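From the shared-data thread, chain only:
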Amino acid sequence: MANKYRTHTCGELRGADAGKRVRLSGWVESLRRHGGVAFASLRDRYGVTQLRLDTSKPLWNVFANLTRESVVCVSGLVQARPSDARNPNMKTGEIEVAVEEVEVLSAVSSSLPFEIKEAKSVEPAVRFKYRYLEMREGSLIETLVFRHRLFSKIREFLSSEGFVEVETPCLTRSTPEGARDYLVPSRVHAGKFYALPQSPQLFKQLLMVGGLDKYFQIARCFRDEDLRADRQPEFTQLDVEMAFVEEEDVYDLVEHLICFVVEQTVGERLKRPFKRISYEDALLRYGSDAPDIRFGMEISDLSDIAAKSKSEILLSVLEKKGVVRGLCVNAALSRKELSLAEEVVKSCGAKGILHFHIEADGVRSPFAKFFDSVALDALKNRFDAKAGDTILVVADEERPAQTALGYLRKHLAQRLNIPRNPRLSFLWVVDWKLVELDEEGVLTNLHHPFTSPHPDDLERLESEPLSVRARAYDIVLNGSELGGGSIRIHNPDIQMRILKLLGLDEKTARDRFGFLLDALKSGAPPHGGIALGLDRFTAFLLGFDSITDVIAFPKTRQATCPLTDSPNEVTEEQLRDLHISIVKEKNSLS
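Structure, as tokens:
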């Protein structure tokens, strides 16, 4: 069946097509006149074709009165360009189309907010508001096509492994899973609310109880949280769950999946098995539970050396059960660099930083006087430091010291442009703790309350909860958490013990999770899985810094959508239907 608007796309015609009569449709990108002839560039998703126009013919008047980015349909004859006019940088650079007929499909009636070719240099809020214009620049559409291919390869691999794609509800009940829920009021049930899912966690566990032993879903997830860098309130994750598995089964599947899709999409071959590091070791050596291991600069504990110093600062920290830790930079840092490093550690809650410049004839530092020669040698040897290196030291409570050095390490790698190899570095972080104390001293789970504790540690669950290990794991890509998962609790008694440990009495636990507890009592297989962030995965594969570069219609850091101007107010009638009234905050000055 013939297409009314085009016989070919604007990126399709080649030298071999010369002599064909064709019909093309697209956006007028540019128009330039040279005496009795004019040239227009016609663009669609697939490319650009040059149009040749005779200015003595009436159709020239149509083009002459058009605004750029108007949409036209043209018919004409494909002609080979003269050899000196060919453009090797264009896919269609060997030809042009001599236009014989033109139909204006949509004329631009007002000026555009920015030039299409300059879209990438426009500030994000403006680009997000006019995302449909940015798409015409081309690279965003290429990214969306790549994202489509990535998702297709994921589906291809998991389907070949016997997994079944199942959609789970987006309107569900509110359950505590880490962040605030987005709530949806019910019109039918006054005063009651649905919640949008933070993840399909409970539903995928129910699928395992139901006997579907291999599930996956490319799922939309929603979290109403204060947005940190490179986060979105709604995002896409690959959700995978399996029954009758242990950790090694999950590692093996995920590594094969990642290796397959990376090779199929960007042509890179990864080595497996992926490296593994324990949660505690990651914090100690890199100051992060999602470390970038592609460069050195590992953190070392220096408390033993500091204990032999005469520094009241260091000795006071150690006396209060704090730590002294540091890292070595293979560079002589300037005063400016040291000042920036100080700002980084203070922004993480640490009190400050000590620096030691390693020179051929010793150590230069305002703090060197507090160490004897043996201690200074020990400091150099701890890092195998050479002349020209700088050792940076933080003395503080363990958590701020750890966090500060972790951020400092990343800051210095970026600031000093330290090479990071390979381009894609995957790492498993394993042997997580089950729970930790939050800032208020309350026990909270590191993953989620459905993570299985290590069976060898069960006897200490109530007496020494902070020592209990979790059967949890994260996968890290280039120093960012790509995903996380665990072996789940399939024993209802253990699940109830965990919920009580987290402060839920039996009534509250049943109110929130009764459906899950009932399911576990009906015969639940051992099961586990993982969720991978696909926005971040796509961004890393393409070398982008932000996930907004791979999302069709992203939101801002304030969780607003400039394109649709949402969130927005609704009518009183809508609120009445939902049995809701808005209580306005009182002005504190009134």
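Residues 76 and 100 are 5 Å apart (CA to CA).
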